[in-house]
Structure formats: C-alpha cells, structure tokens
Amino acid sequence: MRTLADGRVRRTESEWRAIVSRFERSGMSELAFCKKAKLSRQVFRQWRQRLAEREEAQSGFVEWVVPEVVEEPSGRGEFELTLPGGAVLRWKA
C-alpha cells in the first residue's frame, strides 16, 4: 500500500485479494466492513467484482448450455460439444 501526495491510497491486486478474503471471513455486511476498514465502499465493490471476474476467467470451468435437441426420425437426439483446444465430442441420446 502506498499513499499518494494528495492522501489517496493505492493498493496492489494482492492487497485487495487479502482485503476481500478478510471481508468474506468476517461475516460483516459490506457497509460495516468498509467503515471499520476505512475503505471506500465503491472502490471495494469495484475490486471485489474485478477479482471475481478474474477468478471466473481463470477457473477453467466452461458452462455447457444444453442445446436444442435435433430430433431424428428415430426420436434420438445428436449432440456435439467442442472443447477449448479443438477436441470435439459427439454422442447420440
């Protein structure tokens, strides 16, 4: 953390991760936590959202939305799933 000449505080991403982690363990409301820690609630929210988006992007989890089933005369559906990296899975259901 460094304090600028005008009194504003700059924190690194790792410092914000630690702050958000403390908040999640605190059991406090966002408002109470920010008041106690003397944090701008708006900046806290922005960092919390930013970190959540980065975690989601790095998680490797890919949500699969069930496609519309293309019915064949036999009444069976065919599915195709293309994975990152180009692998393709095909199956009939």
Can you walk me through this structure?
- By secondary structure, this protein is α+β, with helices and mostly antiparallel strands.
- The protein has a domain at about 1-60.
- Helices cover about 45% and strands about 20% of the residues.
- The protein has helices at about 15-25, 30-35, 40-60; strands at about 1-5, 10, 70, 75-80, 90.
- The strands form 2 sheets. A 3-stranded antiparallel sheet has the order 3-4-5, with no helix packed on it. It has a two-stranded antiparallel sheet with strand order 1-2.
- A hairpin with a 5-residue loop joins strand 1 (about 1-5) and strand 2.
- The longest helix is centred in the middle third of the chain and has 18 residues, at about 40-60.
Summarize the topology.
Elements: E1 2-3, E2 9-10, H1 13-26, H2 30-37, H3 41-58, E3 70-71, E4 77-82, E5 88-92
Antiparallel strand pairs: 1-2, 3-4, 4-5
Helix pairs in contact: 1-3
